[in-house]
């Protein structure tokens, strides 16, 4: 079974207001194109396909993006906002124009047995992006796409700080994914409302640019804290673990450059990496060091090179980590 709506001129696709926690479209100022499947202020939603497929026909949108002829930000394939008690299961989402599954301002979200497919070269086709949402469970999914497999978000700079709705109480387990340009699991970079209490287990990451990634910037504010990541296997990943506070995209010039993100209490354990180019790149800001990084039982088969770990303005400790981590991660509890 397949759902197909033929798309003629994408610029005629309806427009909706930007999300208040973003202040504008994510790609361009102003409104944004509506998602193919969308809903707002809903209760008790079930989206299931009995192994069916929804084709977002993203290629027409990707061409506009590459040609720099987009009029407004692309729509997602599925977006539900301000909704509660959501189940998405047993369905394939194909060729999303932009992010694929985007629950935003939602609670009690269960996503299971979902497949997300898009070409590895497709731009910004994130898999599953819970955004300012709480009590979320994502499990038993397969994602192969052109950006982050899963990315947790909560608003952008001053708009996310003002809206002040975190992503919290999230469980992610038994996920397999492949992405050429981005990350297996990402936190941010839009995280100004805060991200906390996230548990990730049994994650397999293939051919990615980064495995586990935390990204913030001066101006973001907010926090990322109480994150537990365990049982991760990576194959052919360029950078296994990355923390960066230098991800400097901003919606406008009105952000507060001294609004720093607080990143603390991050546990990463039981990680095995094969054919890894860089074990870790951890770059905090002197004004707001990244604290409380805990690495335990991490074994990475790193391709011999000049640089294995690259660390600055970070603090943490490690046990049973191979190759030996940077000095900043050799503290003890």
Cα-based radius of gyration, to the nearest Å: 19 Å
Percent of sequence in beta strands: over 45%
Topology, number of strands: 20
Number of helices: 2
Q: Write down the domain tally.
A: 1
Distance between the termini: 54 Å
Main beta sheet strand tally, sense and closure? 15 strands, parallel
The ordered string of helix (H) and strand (E) elements is EEEEEHEEEEEEHEEEEEEEEE
CATH top level assignment? Mainly Beta
Proportion of residues in helical segments: under 10%
Task: List the uncertain runs.
Answer: none
Mean pLDDT: 95
> The CATH topology is what?
Pectate Lyase C-like
* CATH H-level homologous superfamily name: Single-stranded right-handed beta-helix, Pectin lyase-like
Shape descriptor? globular
Structural class: mainly beta
Question: From the 3D coordinates, which CATH architecture would you assign?
Answer: 3 Solenoid
Keywords summarizing the entry:
333 residues, mainly beta, 5% helix
Question: What does this 3D model show about the protein?
Answer:
This protein is mainly beta and 333 residues long. The chain has a single domain (2-329), classed as Single-stranded right-handed beta-helix, Pectin lyase-like (Pectate Lyase C-like, 3 Solenoid). 5% of the residues lie in helices and 53% in strands. The chain has a 15-stranded parallel beta sheet that branches. It has a three-stranded parallel beta sheet with strand order 4-6-8, with no helix packed on it.
């Amino acid at each position: 079974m397949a759902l197909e709506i033929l798309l003629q001129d994408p610029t005629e696709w309806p427009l909706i207001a930007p999300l208040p926690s973003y202040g504008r479209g994510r790609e361009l100022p102003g409104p944004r194109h509506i998602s193919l499947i969308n809903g707002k202020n809903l209760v008790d939603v079930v989206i299931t396909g009995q192994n069916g497929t929804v084709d977002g026909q993203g290629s027409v949108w990707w061409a506009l993006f590459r040609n720099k002829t987009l009029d407004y930000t692309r729509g997602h394939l599925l977006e539900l906002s301000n909704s509660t008690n959501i189940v998405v299961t047993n369905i394939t989402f194909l060729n999303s124009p932009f992010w694929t599954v985007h629950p935003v301002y939602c609670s009690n979200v269960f996503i299971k047995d979902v497949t997300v497919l898009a070409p590895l070269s497709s731009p910004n086709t994130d898999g599953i992006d819970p955004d300012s949402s709480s009590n979320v469970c994502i499990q038993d999914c397969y994602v192969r796409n052109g950006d982050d497999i899963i990315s947790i978000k909560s608003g952008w700079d001053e708009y996310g700080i003002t809206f002040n709705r975190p992503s919290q109480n999230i469980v992610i387990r038994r996920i397999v994914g492949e992405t050429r340009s981005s990350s297996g699991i990402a936190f941010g970079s839009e995280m100004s409302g805060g991200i906390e209490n996230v548990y990730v287990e049994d994650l397999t990451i293939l051919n990615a640019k980064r495995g586990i990634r935390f990204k913030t910037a001066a101006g973001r504010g907010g926090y990322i804290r109480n994150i537990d990541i365990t049982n991760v296997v990576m194959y052919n990943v360029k950078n296994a673990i990355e923390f960066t506070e230098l991800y400097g995209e901003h919606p406008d010039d009105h952000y507060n450059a001294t609004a720093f993100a607080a990143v603390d209490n991050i546990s990463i354990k039981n990680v095995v990496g094969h054919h890894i180019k860089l074990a870790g790149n951890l770059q905090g800001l002197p004004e707001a060091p990244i604290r409380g990084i805990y690495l335990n039982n991490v074994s990475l088969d790193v391709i011999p090179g000049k640089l294995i770990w690259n660390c600055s303005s970070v603090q943490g400790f490690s046990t049973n980590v191979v190759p030996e981590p940077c000095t900043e991660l050799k503290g003890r509890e």
